[in-house]
DNA sequence: AATACCGCCAACCGCTGCTGT
DNA sequence: GACAGCAGCGGTTGGCGGTAT
């Protein structure tokens, strides 16, 4: 496995194995890849080497395009809003990074995965004794409350988003009530049914809706609550209230929707 | 100033699932 | 149905730069 390391590089230098280049991409390679995609579109990655004259295998080309060269990529730090979505979706979907990424336009699964690992993974190992944990949480709550004030300006926009989501969910509930026989038992069935009656549902909404119906994804257990607070120190309160409403029943779905009826 | 440590990120690898033959 | 090739996914690795000691 490390033959190439010994033969051709120290660390991530450029190496060649069976004619394929590995390691960091250079500007010239990026240019060739961009040119290829502009002319031929995405896909058929194994043809890239032959057509574009790149000494990279298909996987490497695809990864470079998806994670770095795609024009719709959003650069810069993950925003608090994005972070809150990541936490919510991770609670629902686990490590299904590509699914999570689909709800965050401009962000890649790799980016989200890296973000999660560096920001949250190790927080689960933090203070073992309860007092220390409570102290940490209290501190985070205080920080959170301070940040609330700063973020009130953003509240209006988020409330609009919440309103839209609730309207969507109301729509879905109505459709389900008209089709009572279609109660799904798996996330796949939920997705299928939602796709049939409501094609624009995001993975986030699907997961949320599935948890509502089945009560198996985001019931507010203590560990989940801890996870949430670990990440919530810079949440906006609207989204937090939103997540706190994740009681797994149809009735609560109506409660969520009722104010907007 | 030197060193150790840590966070971030690009890139690779192995595996799985899909699709065409 | 079996097989091969390909695309996509998640886990892991390693380099770099910033910060702490």
Give your account of this protein's structure.
This protein is mainly alpha-helical and 261 residues long. The protein has 14 helices and 2 strands; from the N terminus they run αββααααααααααααα. It has 2 domains: 67 residues, Homeodomain-like (Arc Repressor Mutant, subunit A, Orthogonal Bundle), CATH 1.10.10.60; 181 residues, no CATH class. Strands 1-2 form a two-stranded antiparallel sheet. The N terminus and C terminus are likely disordered. Helix 9 packs parallel to helix 13, helix 9 packs across helix 14 and helix 10 crosses helix 11. Strand 1 and strand 2 form a beta hairpin. The structure holds a DNA duplex (21 and 21 nucleotides).
Task: Give descriptors for this structure.
261 residues; mainly alpha; Arc Repressor Mutant, subunit A; 2 domains; two-stranded antiparallel ribbon; 14 helices; 64% helix; disordered N terminus; DNA-binding
Low-confidence stretches: 1-11, 124-151, 179-183, 212-261
The gross shape turns out to be elongated
Give the overall pLDDT as a whole number. 61
H and E order: HEEHHHHHHHHHHHHH
The CA-CA distance between the termini, in Å, is: 62 Å
Class from secondary-structure proportions:
mainly alpha
Q: Helix tally?
A: 14
Order of strands across the main sheet: 1-2
Output the radius of gyration: 23 Å
Q: What's the number of structural domains?
A: 2
How much helical structure, as a percent, in the residues?
A: 55-70%
Query: What summary fits the major beta sheet?
Result: 2 strands, antiparallel
**Beta strands, count:** 2
């Amino acid at each position: 496995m490390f033959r190439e390391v010994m033969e051709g590089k120290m660390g991530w230098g450029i190496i060649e194995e069976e004619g394929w280049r590995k390691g960091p991409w250079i500007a010239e390679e990026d240019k060739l890849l961009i040119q290829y995609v502009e002319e031929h579109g995405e896909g058929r990655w194994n043809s890239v080497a032959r057509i574009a004259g790149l000494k990279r295998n298909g996987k490497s080309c695809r990864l470079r395009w998806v994670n770095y060269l795609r024009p719709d990529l959003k650069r810069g730090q993950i925003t608090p809003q994005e972070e809150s979505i990541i936490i919510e979706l991770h609670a629902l979907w686990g490590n299904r990074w590509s699914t999570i990424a689909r709800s965050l336009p401009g962000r890649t699964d790799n980016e989200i995965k890296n973000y999660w690992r560096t920001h949250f993974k190790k927080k689960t190992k933090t203070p073992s004794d309860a007092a220390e944990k409570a102290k940490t949480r209290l501190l985070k709550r205080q920080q959170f409350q301070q940040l609330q004030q700063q973020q009130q300006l953003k509240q209006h926009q988020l409330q609009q988003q919440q309103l839209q989501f609730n309207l969507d969910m109301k729509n879905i509930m109505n459709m389900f009530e008209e089709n009572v026989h279609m109660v799904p038992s798996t996330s796949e069935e939920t997705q299928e049914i939602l796709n049939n009656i409501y094609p624009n549902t995001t993975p986030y909404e699907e997961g949320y809706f599935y948890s509502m119906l089945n009560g198996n994804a985001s019931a507010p257990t203590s560990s989940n609550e801890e996870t949430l607070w670990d990440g919530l120190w810079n949440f906006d309160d609207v989204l937090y209230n939103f997540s706190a409403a994740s009681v797994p029943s149809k009735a609560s779905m109506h409660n969520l929707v009722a104010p907007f009826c």
